[in-house]
C-alpha cells in the first residue's frame, strides 16, 4: 500500500502531506485515518503510548467519545527527507459544554511507501469561552481553503 506524497519530501509535498493529514483527522473517521499509518505504527500521544492500526482506531474512538465538535488546523513546521514536524491547534468541547483549544507539536517519520511509522505528539489543552473560538466550518468536512490557518489566526 502506498500513501503519496512519498519521501523524500520537498516543501510542497510536505505541505501536501500535512494538509492531507488535517483533512483526514477532521473527518473523525478512525478507520480511514488509521490507513495513513503503517501496520505497526508507534505513537506517543501526550502520555499515552499506542502501537498498531487496531490500537490507533481504539484510541481515536475514545478520543472522539470525549472531544465533541472537533476541528483541527495543522501547519508545517519543518521537514527533511522522511520526517515532517508540524504544529497544530484544535478546538472541541467536552460533555459539560466546556470549550477547549488544544495546542501541540508532532514529529512524524515515514517509510518509503509514505506511511507514517512514528508519531510523537505533545499537546496542551487550554479552556476557552465559546466566544473565543476561532475555527468555524462545517464539522462534517475539511477546513475550507479560504478559512485562515494558524499563522493567519495568530496562533
TrEMBL record:
InterPro entries: DUF1348, NTF2-like_dom_sf. Coiled coil: none annotated. It comes from the Bacteria. It holds the Pfam family DUF1348. Signal peptide: none annotated. SUPFAM superfamilies: NTF2-like (SSF54427). PANTHER family: SLL0781 PROTEIN. This is Nuclear transport factor 2 family protein. It comes from Streptomyces axinellae. The lineage of its organism: Bacteria, Bacillati, Actinomycetota, Actinomycetes, Kitasatosporales.
Amino acid at each position: 500500500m502506498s500513501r503519496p506524497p512519498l519521501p523524500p519530501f520537498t516543501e510542497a509535498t510536505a505541505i501536501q502531506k500535512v494538509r492531507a493529514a488535517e483533512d483526514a483527522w477532521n473527518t473523525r473517521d478512525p478507520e480511514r485515518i488509521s490507513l495513513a499509518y503503517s501496520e505497526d505504527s508507534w505513537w506517543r500521544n501526550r502520555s499515552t503510548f499506542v502501537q498498531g492500526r487496531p490500537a490507533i482506531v481504539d484510541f481515536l474512538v475514545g478520543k472522539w467519545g470525549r472531544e465533541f465538535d472537533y476541528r483541527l488546523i495543522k501547519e508545517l513546521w519543518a521537514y527533511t527527507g522522511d520526517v515532517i514536524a508540524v504544529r497544530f491547534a484544535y478546538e472541541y468541547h467536552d460533555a459539560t459544554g466546556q470549550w477547549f483549544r488544544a495546542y501541540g507539536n508532532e514529529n512524524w517519520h515515514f517509510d518509503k511507501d509514505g506511511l507514517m511509522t512514528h508519531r510523537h505528539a505533545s499537546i496542551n489543552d487550554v479552556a476557552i469561552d465559546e466566544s473565543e473560538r476561532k475555527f468555524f466550518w462545517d464539522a462534517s468536512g475539511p477546513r475550507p481553503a479560504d478559512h485562515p490557518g494558524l499563522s493567519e489566526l495568530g496562533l
